[in-house]
Each structure stands twice: as C-alpha cells, then as structure tokens.
Automatic annotation (TrEMBL):
The active site is at 176, 226 (proton donor), 296. This is UDP-N-acetylenolpyruvoylglucosamine reductase. Belongs to the MurB family. It is found in: Cytoplasm. Its EC number is 1.3.1.98. It comes from Alkalihalobacillus trypoxylicola.
C-alpha cells in the first residue's frame, strides 16, 4: 500500500489511530486467526464510510468490509487492499417502539438497549456475538427468534456508492441468508420495530438464554461460533457428536468437547488448521450419515504463500 493511499485515507479519517498498515487481522477476529491486511480503516460516520468506499472504487482498490468478525475465518495469507472494519459505527437510538442501530454495534448491546427501554422482541439476540451488519447479512437467530422477526428496514450503500433504504422484505431474509452479498450492499444502519414489554420478564428471558448459552457453548476459547448450518431433518452438532469427532484436533483447532457444533482455538490455531478440520468433519459426517454439512461461517482472504527451499 503506497504512501499516497495512506495519506488520502488519513485525510478522510482525520485520525491516525483509525488507520493501520500491514497489521494482522487476528487481532480483530473471534477465532484469533487471520493474516495481515494491507491497510485497515475504522470509519466513525456514514459520511466516512461513503467517502472511503468511493475512494476505493475510483482508484480500483480492493475493499473488504468487516463487522466484528465473529462468524468469520480469514485465511492465513490475509487480505489485499483496504479492509474497512465498522466497529466504531456503533450508535443506537430509540424513537418509541423503534430502535435504529448502526451496523458496527454489537447485537448483544442492542438487545440490552431494548431491555433498558422495556422493549421486547430482541431477547433472542442477547447471546449472539455479532454486529448488526453481520446479523442482517446472515439473518442471525437463536432460541426460536431471528432478525427477520423484528427488522423493518436497512440503510445501505449500494455497489455504486449511493445511499439507499431497503425494506426487510426486499432483503429476502431466509435461514441464515439474505441477498445483501448478491446485491453488493454495505449495511450502514438497521431499523427494528419492537413492542412494549415488562422489563422484569424481558430480563428473566435474557438471563435464561444467557445461562443456556454459557452452559452449552465453549465460550472459554476463541471460536467462530456455530460452524455449520442445520441440515434438513438433522442437527449438525448431533451428527458430529455421533461421528465421534469431539476432541478431534488439527494443529491448534479442536472440535469442542462441550458443543460439537463449535471448533475452538485451543493452542495457537491457524486459519489453515480450522479449514482442514472443517473439511475433515464434513468428510466424516458425509461418509457416516450421507449428510452434507454446509458451512455457516464465512471464509475470506488469501492462502499463505508457500515458499520452497
């Protein structure tokens, strides 16, 4: 990344703390894996996001958008071009029963904000470790609820760099899917419509779901969350468990002994360790049960160059 690009991006961001050069993305991923990015930028406003987007478009620079990188594996070779991390875009506001949250806000924090204002409908999200943008991207859900239940609309940047408001219906939200990637949308803000609730009941429900999550999921280790989508008629974790894969390790990555649907970083795992273990699990389940496990976790980035001696 040449000095001109750095200076141009800095002129948009106004703060050299919000731009990093050749830094490992492992600092920002939930798995604690991932190679270096040429440049990482942390915009703090919609205007900065739009300006950076247009700058990369006009200068034909590759641009990758990340939220809090929770349901994501970045390969060991890292990412070329500009990586825009939206975690500083985290404002949350309320107007009556409507909550607006910027895309970098953690959905857990938005669910807590709803509780503070006695609004019900986001309890299911109290344990989902993702950003609002990521939650829309994959229609995140848990314990019988999902984003599509309460989403009204989203503000996005189109692939041409234009601001646009899209209704929830237009996003074609399905089971862990949307058309956000297909349309090249960059989510800036989400609008949720909730209903008035009893704060004690809302808190009790969130406490119950938090207990369930903490008791069943291996939160003591870095992980990318649930690795696989639920196959029709089955549960991914049960298939993996019945394939006797819990505790299976490749490098520093391990199929969790606490929840078979999770792969955890127990000892300095690389992204390659993760990907090889995912492939191994898929092969074993396919051979034993003739079921194809489809990844829920996204995989991006480049493979590490192999240098021959």
């Amino acid at each position: 990344m040449n000095n001109t690009v750095y200076k141009d991006l800095l002129s948009i961001l106004k703060n050299d703390e919000n731009i990093k050069i050749n830094q490992s993305l492992s600092y920002y991923t939930y798995t604690k894996t991932g190679g270096p990015a040429d440049v990482i930028v942390f915009p703090t406003s919609i205007e900065q996001v739009q300006q950076i987007y247009m700058y990369t478009l006009e200068n034909q620079l590759p641009l990758t958008i990340l939220g809090n990188a929770s349901n994501l594996i970045i390969k060991d070779g890292g990412i070329r071009g500009v990586v825009m991390i939206l975690t500083e875009m985290k404002q949350v506001n309320r107007d009556g029963y409507v909550i607006k949250a910027q895309s970098g806000a953690a959905i857990i924090n938005v669910s807590r904000f709803a509780l503070e204002h006695s609004l019900t409908g986001l309890e299911f999200a109290c344990g989902i470790p993702g950003s609002i943008g990521g939650a829309l991207y994959m229609n995140a859900g848990a314990y019988g609820g999902e984003v599509s239940d309460v989403l009204v609309e989203a503000s996005v940047l189109t692939k041409e760099g234009q601001l646009k408001t899209i209704s929830a219906d237009q996003l074609e939200l399905g089971y862990r899917t949307s058309n956000i990637e297909a349309n090249g949308y960059l989510v800036l803000e989400a609008t949720f419509r909730l209903t008035e609730g009893n704060p004690a009941e809302i808190k009790a429900k969130m406490d119950e779901l938090t207990f369930l999550r903490e008791s069943k999921q291996p939160l003591e280790y870095p992980s990318c969350g649930s690795v696989f989508k639920r196959p029709p008629g089955h549960f991914a974790g049960k298939l993996i468990q019945d394939s006797h894969l819990q505790g299976k390790r490749i490098g520093g990555a391990e199929v969790s002994t606490k929840h078979a649907g999770f792969i955890v970083n127990v000892d300095g795992a690389t992204a390659t360790d993760y990907l090889e273990l995912i492939a191994h699990v898929q092969n074993e389940v396919r051979n034993k049960f003739s079921v194809e496990l489809e990844r829920e976790v996204r995989v991006i980035g480049e493979d590490r160059d192999i240098i021959s001696s």
